[in-house]
Design goal:
The chain is globular. The chain has one domain: Glutaredoxin (3-Layer(aba) Sandwich), CATH 3.40.30. The N terminus is likely disordered. By secondary structure, it is α+β, with helices and mostly antiparallel strands.
């Protein structure tokens, strides 16, 4: 892992995607979640898939706000990522390391990573605050 030295002696680590492990919690019967995992693997991430019968308990465990719930929940490098979030947003999250619990994109939008069909509108990714609320817009793709 490369470490960059910043002014005042501060450091940040820049781990390539292939050094990161994403854990995806999904219903055993969900196929699109597996497609999302394959998408991340193609981008260089290590992916561990956990089949979970009670996904609501996972949403509660990770404080995912109801408004952002999707079919799967991912944990990566201390953050929660909810739904079919494009990798560009995951990279931004990991590079900037904001003081939030994570990010999420509600539902299962057509054309998003792991979902069939054409992209029909912008993908709006929101912050998930530490208290489990839907925060500000994190990124629009």
């Amino acid at each position: 892992m490369a470490v960059q030295t910043l002014p005042k002696g501060e450091t940040i680590s820049e781990a390539p995607a292939n050094e990161l492990l994403a854990t995806i919690y999904k219903s055993p019967s969900c196929g699109c979640c597996g497609q999302y995992a394959a998408y991340l693997e193609k981008k260089g991430y290590g992916v561990d898939i956990e089949g979970v019968a009670d996904m609501q308990s996972i949403k509660e465990q990770f404080d995912v706000p109801y408004e952002l719930e999707s079919c799967h929940t991912m944990e990566i490098d201390g953050y929660v990522v909810e739904g079919h979030v494009p990798e560009e947003a995951v990279q931004k999250l990991l590079a900037e390391r904001p003081d939030i619990k994570g990010i999420g994109m509600a539902g299962m939008p057509s054309g998003s990573p792991g979902m069939p069909g054409p992209k029909t509108s912008d993908f709006v990714i929101y912050e998930i605050t530490h208290d489990g609320a839907k925060g500000e817009v994190f990124m629009t793709i």
